[in-house]
Amino acid sequence: MKTSSGKEPSRRTDWARLDAQTDEQIAAAIRDDPDAASIADAEWFASAKLVLPEPKEQISIRLDRDVLEHFRKYPRYQTRINAILRAAMEHEKKAG
Predict the structure, then answer these.
(1) Is there a contact between 9 and 1 (Cβ–Cβ < 8 Å)?
(2) Is the dihedral of CA 6, 12, 13, 14 positive or negative?
(3) What are the mean pLDDT values of the chain's consecutive 10-residue runs (96 residues total)?
(4) Are 21 and 15 in contact (CB under 8 A)?
(5) 91 vs 83: CA distance, rounded Å
């Protein structure tokens, strides 16, 4: 991937340069970075709402053995299966 200047980005971090930066230089770099996330302050927390995900429903489902073996290779395989089923559902909804 090339940068906006057309150059290949450096693949190595200059740790010595980073270690040499002062706290003020780091703060200025963060302040001037348009991609840096703003710090959540007390005002933000006062207006924030906690949104919990809908609880999942426990079911029993029969799957082909090889399908289940495939998904069990991954951590949180049930969550992965749910995400794949959700993507299929949303695709069908868009298709009409």
Answers:
(1) yes
(2) negative
(3) 64 89 92 83 86 93 98 96 97 93
(4) no
(5) 12
